[in-house]
Design a protein that fits this description.
This protein is 74% helix and 0% strand. By secondary structure, the chain is mostly helical. It has 2 domains: 234 residues, no CATH class; 205 residues, Orthogonal Bundle (Hypothetical protein af1432), CATH 1.10.3210.10. Helix 1 runs antiparallel to helix 3, helix 4 runs antiparallel to helix 5 and helix 10 packs across helix 14. This is HD domain-containing protein. Keywords: Membrane, Transmembrane, Transmembrane helix.
């Protein structure tokens, strides 16, 4: 609808300018009555307007999307030009106008048609861009296209030539008029009339040029905005974006290769993520295997941590710390919580009985060994949110809320939230699963012990979250059951003490 309204305005403006001002430029047109002057102009332009709306537009919609903009330009410029030819022929046949007068009409309509056609072509690009953006489709730009520098050179050259031509006609007409009137009109009045006329013509040309420049800059700005947004989103890790490709030119090619680049980054990132996840699970499984624990322990604990974190997103104390990205990183890094066990000697790690005080001190070092290993990895590979969280979890998941934990004995909120979440998840899983020195506890017994350790071992808010979502814990435990007996250091430690 906006395109139709824009086309209507262009045709009306052209009719008004040619009808009202044309007679002043051409003395032969001035010799006609208002009806004789306006009737052929109105009928001819109305006919081509209807053809454009009812026939040409349908033909344009059936062409390839990348050709539609240029087709709009061709059809609208052709409509204005042919209107001028028909009006010239009509006046020549019926009123015996000389060829020069007819060509003035053709030139005037060609000038206005040129600007109108460019403006409507740019409007078509704008509408097409919106449509493709909404649908998610795009065009395939050609390898050979009419470049924007060439368009700019052509437009600038045409503007200069057309403006020079119309000004030549105006000045020539005014010189003839001044020669004809001689001294009948004071020089000051003649000068005022000429300057008003020149100002009007220049104003009309500038208005047309401004309209085209505005339409072009709007499309250009729209492309740059979309390109900028997509690049910013891709930089932030969001690869589910693309730049609409709606023009068969440099912008279309740039948009196409931007989209291909984003798709490539998405594919590479997914491959890296898969490789990272496989590496994490492999390392974590290796550590758990040395401890005689099953891989299911890893799967359960990371899901417990995620469930707790998701629930605490609504808590005012944690809302700013547990966004969706952080929760995902917690889920991915949780399996590395006991990676330090690979550094514990087998005679201690695999001992089925009670540990001595000296052995227990060595066992406790798995937290610092894990934290140090991950810290060194981060130093060598570069800073990473994932490695940072993994280091926190490995180092602090045995810290206690009351400050009696290890390795640093920190208390309360000084322990990172990642470590506090892992502490509850890890102990719960140890309680409900069978070990060589104990039978598996029921969920209710495990819940009783965790509640007993509330504000001692565990952050009371995390314990409260555990109680509120205990059904999720039960479902996770049922889904990932152990098939192999295992020993667990957390419970052994409790019995040791």
């Amino acid at each position: 609808m906006k395109t139709m309204a824009r086309r209507t305005i262009h045709y009306i403006v052209a009719f008004v300018i040619l009808g009202i001002y044309g007679g002043q430029v051409c003395p032969f047109l001035e010799s006609l009555t208002i009806l004789q002057l306006l009737a052929p102009i109105f009928v001819t332009m109305a006919l081509f307007y209807l053809l454009q709306v009812m026939v040409f537009n349908k033909a344009i919609e059936k062409t390839l999307l990348k050709k539609q903009s240029i087709r709009v330009f061709q059809f609208d410029l052709g409509s204005f030009f042919l209107s001028g030819i028909i009006i010239m022929l009509f006046n020549t046949v019926y009123y015996s106008f000389p060829l020069g007068s007819g060509l003035k009409i053709v030139f005037a309509l060609f000038l206005m048609g040129f600007f109108a056609a460019i403006d409507l072509s740019l409007e078509k690009e704008w509408v097409l861009n919106r449509r493709l953006e909404a649908s998610g489709d795009w065009i395939e730009p050609d390898l050979q296209f009419f470049s924007h520098p060439k368009k700019l050179v052509l437009f600038s050259s045409a503007c200069m030539l057309l403006a020079a031509g119309i000004m030549f006609l105006v000045i020539n007409k005014d010189l003839e008029w001044m020669a004809k009137i001689g001294n009948e009109i004071p020089v000051a009045d003649a000068q005022r009339y000429i300057m008003t006329e020149v100002g009007f013509v220049v104003g009309v040309i500038l208005l047309y040029m401004f309209t085209v420049i505005y339409a072009y800059s709007r499309n250009f700005r729209n492309f740059l905005d979309k390109e900028t947004v997509v690049l910013q989103e891709a930089t932030g890790g969001n690869f589910a974006v693309h730049v609409p490709i709606s023009s068969n030119d440099e912008f279309g090619v740039m948009a196409k290769h931007t989209n291909l680049m984003v798709e490539g980054l998405k594919h590479s990132t997914e491959e890296l993520a898969k490789t990272r996840d496989v590496t994490i699970l492999s390392l974590a499984s290796l550590a758990e295997t040395r401890d005689n624990e099953t891989g299911s322990h890893i799967l359960r604990t990371q899901r417990y941590v995620k469930a707790l974190a998701k629930h605490l997103q609504g808590h005012p104390d944690f809302r700013s710390k547990l966004n969706d990205d952080t929760v995902d990183l917690l889920y991915k890094s949780a399996p590395l919580h006991d990676i330090g066990k690979v550094g514990i000697p087998d005679n201690i790690l695999l001992k089925p009985g009670k540990l001595t005080d000296e052995e227990f001190q060595i066992m406790k070092s798995h937290t610092t060994l894990g934290g140090e290993t991950l810290r060194i990895t981060e130093e060598r590979l570069g800073s990473s949110s994932f490695l940072n969280l993994a280091t926190e979890i490995a180092l602090t998941h045995h810290e206690r809320w009351d400050g009696t934990g290890y390795p640093k004995g920190i208390a309360g909120d000084k322990t990172p939230i990642s470590g506090r979440l892992m502490a509850v998840a890890d102990v719960y899983d140890a309680l409900i699963n069978k070990r060589v020195y104990k039978e598996a506890f029921s969920h209710d017994k495990a819940k009783e012990i965790i509640l007993e350790w509330r504000e001692k071992n565990f952050d009371p808010r995390v314990v409260d979250a555990f109680i509120e979502i205990e059904k999720q814990f039960i479902e996770i435990a049922a889904q990932f059951q152990d098939n192999v007996p295992a020993i667990d250091f957390k419970i052994r430690r409790t019995y040791h003490e």
